[in-house]
């Protein structure tokens, strides 16, 4: 059960008007914990997104009264962890020069767009941020250093054949401020693997922890597994194909060996949106300069949901490829490219045409659009 107003987030999946599927695993607050769970979100359609995935979340709280003592103790524990992690890698008989070296880049700062909370002491929060990011860096380095470089998808060139690059970028989450995401350069693009930030004071207060400061994080376990095992598409985790399943053994990190990929075919769908509607968001890079606002009441996640509902996993990806606003009518035109591809067979032209027509019909029925 959720409070009124929370379900305004267009990424949430409703069971009915009163209940949602969990979009995160954390529904309780304790001083320190880790929890892993399956979570559900409406999102983009591509090789790194799926409406069901697995997430590990964690919270670390510090007493406001004994903050300096506890933050100092946390630093000592991190140093102990680093020594233990290095010792484990050095003693591993499988450890060799093929292990990836993780390089971390973080030039983020706290800004007006990603601010300190007014009730917090910036000096204390700076120490809390350092504690959080160093803990995350240590964990990422420990986990991903176990990946081998036998898959070229994690590197850019032969001169960097054993390096994995990660970066920190500014982010927004409703339950933390300031907030960040951690991304990995993988398959020639940045892949988000972690979101984290300083927990909002009102959240702690409402949970009976008003005397605490803390940070929280969430790791995408599926994406970590993609990097560790060299799996190029998150949807493969749901495959029952023996060519995929038989490649892996519990407790052993091995690189995925691609099997035959069937041909793909793309179809475009273009439409006009309602000129009298409010401004809302899309996820497309075409809208980065405008803060993801496109001037129409069109939720991109609604389109993704309909496409996925009609075509299921026969859609490889959906991308916004064109957008323009008619200056005379103030109407916005959007063009989305739908790439159809099955993992286990070739699709026929008749199948693709039928799917595309069904997608167009459903979009026209359920969204405030006019097909072109």
UniProtKB/TrEMBL annotation:
Keyword Endoplasmic reticulum in record: no
All residue ranges annotated as the Aminoacyl-transfer RNA synthetases class-II family profile domain in the record: 32-250
Residues in FDX-ACB domain copies: 260-372
Cellular component, GO, one term: mitochondrial matrix
Pfam families, A to Z: FDX-ACB (PF03147), tRNA-synt_2d (PF01409)
Localization (cell): Mitochondrion matrix
Domain of life: Eukaryota
InterPro entries: aa-tRNA-synth_II, aa-tRNA-synth_II/BPL/LPL, Fdx_antiC-bd, Fdx_antiC-bd_sf, Phe-tRNA-synth_IIc_mito, Phenylalanyl-tRNA_Synthase
Enzyme's top EC category: ligase
Family in the record: Belongs to the class-II aminoacyl-tRNA synthetase family.
Protein name: phenylalanine--tRNA ligase
Organism, scientific name: Smittium culicis
């Amino acid at each position: 059960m959720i409070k009124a107003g929370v379900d305004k987030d267009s990424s949430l999946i409703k069971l009915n008007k009163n209940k949602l599927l969990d979009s995160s695993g954390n529904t309780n607050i304790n001083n320190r914990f880790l929890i892993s769970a399956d979570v559900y979100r409406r999102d983009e359609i591509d090789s790194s997104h799926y409406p069901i995935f697995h997430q590990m979340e964690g919270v670390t709280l510090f007493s406001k009264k004994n903050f300096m003592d506890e933050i100092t103790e946390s630093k000592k524990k991190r140093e102990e962890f680093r020594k233990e992690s290095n010792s484990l890698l050095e003693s591993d008989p499988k450890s060799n020069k093929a292990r990836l070296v993780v390089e971390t880049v973080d030039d983020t700062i706290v800004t007006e767009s990603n601010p300190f909370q007014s009730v917090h002491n910036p000096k204390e929060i700076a120490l809390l941020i350092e504690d959080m990011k160093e803990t995350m860096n240590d964990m990422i380095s420990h986990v991903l250093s176990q990946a081998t470089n036998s898959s070229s998808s994690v590197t850019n060139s032969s001169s960097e054949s054993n390096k994995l690059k990660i970066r920190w970028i500014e982010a927004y989450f409703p339950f933390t401020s300031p907030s960040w995401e951690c991304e990995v350069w993988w398959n020639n693009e940045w892949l988000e693997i972690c979101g984290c930030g300083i927990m909002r004071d009102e959240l702690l207060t409402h949970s009976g922890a008003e005397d605490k400061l803390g940070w929280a994080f969430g790791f995408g376990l599926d994406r970590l597994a993609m990097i560790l095992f060299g799996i190029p598409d998150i949807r493969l985790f749901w495959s029952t194909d023996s060519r995929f399943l038989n490649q892996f053994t519990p407790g052993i990190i091995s690189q995925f060996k691609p099997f035959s990929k069937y041909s793909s075919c793309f179809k475009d769908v273009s439409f006009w949106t309602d000129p009298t509607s409010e401004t809302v968001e899309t996820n497309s890079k075409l809208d980065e300069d405008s803060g993801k606002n496109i001037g129409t009441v069109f939720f991109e996640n609604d389109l993704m949901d309909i496409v996925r509902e009609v075509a299921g996993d026969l859609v490889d990806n959906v991308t916004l490829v064109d957008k323009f606003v008619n200056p005379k009518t103030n109407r916005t035109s959007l063009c989305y490219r739908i790439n159809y591809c099955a993992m286990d067979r070739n699709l026929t032209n008749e199948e693709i045409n039928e799917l595309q027509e069904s997608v167009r019909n459903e979009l026209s029925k359920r969204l405030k659009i006019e097909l072109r």
